[in-house]
Design brief:
Blueprint (H helix, E strand, L loop, with lengths): L1 H37 L4 E2 L1 H82 L7 H7 L3 H101 L8 E3 L20 E2 L25 H11 L14 H4 L5 E2 L7 E4 L6 E9 L2 E7 L7 E7 L2
Parallel strand pairs: 1-3
Antiparallel strand pairs: 2-4, 2-5, 5-6, 6-7, 7-8
Length: 390
């Protein structure tokens, strides 16, 4: 009895565990299905992509406009800084000229001092024999005391003159050197200011260059986007024209006749009628930013091929899986399935345009077929249409 109770508790535990696992699985499936539901949002047709690119171009142009205004301020700052540089350079040139003039004056004064010394030295030598005569010798060679006094006075006067001249020249040299030093200090200050302004101008020029590079990048983006817009508009126009006329290059359509009895069905039961839609050029995915998703047969929701594949299954036959774009179906289907004349239940294929177009044939009337379809205008919408097939 104890073993039975233990076994009962053990099996009950397993049952409860299995129940929990089942709940987890159900919850997970619900989560997955809810993820699919959350993607039932907006449609993104080729026209939406064109509008998005146009909006991006408007933003690019606004950014370029702002950059141009900023570039103008940079250019104005550069012009003002260049004016300051020119002014400082003018002052530097002026001070360097004054410095050069002072240096010439100093050299001239030094030459004059050397000349004065030479002249006075020659005069002294002329008065005194080789400049070696003593006071006693001068007194002895004088006729009288008066002549001695005159010679002594003259010699003193000559010495005084030499000292006075040398002092005057030395003073002038000191003044000139002082002025030269002031000019050198002023030059150093002006050159320092020039360096600062040069650095500011270089920074403004760097910012201007970066600004112009950004302008070029935005203009390139705008140009590339415009090329994409033109290509998308071309594809839209070509595919819409092809979908509306039903005329293909070789003069008719292809009709794929999947084997089996054809039963009536309600197109409103298409399971992805409320799913997301996109005309993105890349394959659809659950994990990208586009609203469309893969259906259960290898196509993208609310595309013509998704509906056509479902319609084959809904009418009682095997669903064609992974046939690709509409214009690829003719090559993917077995050759025995492909006809050039229609009957109800066929999948009509137009190979015109970028992707072609797939439709379910509801009825045939002479050279016309009545079709049900999705995405005839590249907007992911359901519609009926009479079309000429030859």
């Amino acid at each position: 009895m104890l073993k039975k109770n233990t076994l009962h508790r053990y099996t009950s535990s397993i049952a409860r565990g299995s129940y929990r696992i089942l709940l987890v699985v159900v919850a997970f499936l619900f989560l997955v299905s809810s993820i699919s539901v959350t993607r039932i949002v907006q449609a993104q047709s080729l026209e939406d992509q064109v509008q998005a690119l146009q909006q991006e171009n408007r933003s690019n142009k606004a950014a370029v406009k702002n950059l141009v205004a900023t570039a103008t301020s940079y250019q104005n700052a550069i012009s003002q800084l260049q004016a300051q540089i020119d002014q400082l350079q003018g002052q530097i040139n002026q001070q360097e000229a004054q410095k050069s003039l002072l240096e010439q004056q100093i050299q001239q004064q030094q030459a004059e001092l050397d000349r004065q010394r030479k002249v006075l030295g020659e005069n002294i030598k002329a008065m005194y024999v080789n400049g070696d005569m003593t006071t006693i010798e001068m007194l002895a060679t004088s006729k009288d005391l008066s002549e001695f006094v005159d010679k002594e006075t003259y010699r003193n006067a000559v010495q005084h003159k030499i000292q006075e001249t040398m002092a005057k020249i030395a003073k002038l040299q000191n003044e000139l050197n002082a002025k030269k030093k002031q000019i050198e200090v002023l030059l150093a200050s002006l050159q320092s200011q020039r360096s600062v302004v040069d650095a500011s101008r270089a920074e403004q020029a760097r910012l201007l260059s970066m600004n112009q590079q950004q302008q070029a990048e935005f203009n390139d983006r705008t140009k590339n986007n415009q090329a994409k817009i033109e290509e998308l508009n071309r594809q839209i126009a070509a595919q819409r024209a092809a979908n509306s006329s039903g005329i293909v290059p070789d003069g008719g359509m292809y009709f794929i006749r999947f084997p089996g009895a054809v039963h009536a069905f309600n197109p409103g039961n298409y399971p992805y009628k409320n799913a997301g839609f996109s005309m993105q050029l890349a394959p659809c995915s659950f994990y990208d930013s586009y609203p469309d998703s893969p259906d259960g047969w290898g196509y993208c929701t609310r595309q013509c091929v998704s509906y056509a594949a479902w319609a084959v299954g809904a009418s009682g036959r095997s669903i064609p899986i992974n046939y690709g774009n509409a214009k690829d179906w003719v090559g993917r289907a077995p050759a025995s399935y492909v006809f050039r004349t229609p009957q109800p239940g066929d999948i009509a294929i137009s190979t015109a345009g970028t992707w072609g177009h797939a439709m379910y044939v509801e009825a045939v009337d002479g050279n016309r077929i009545y079709v049900s379809q999705y995405n005839q205008q590249l907007t992911g919408q359901f519609s009926y249409q009479w079309r000429v097939w030859r």
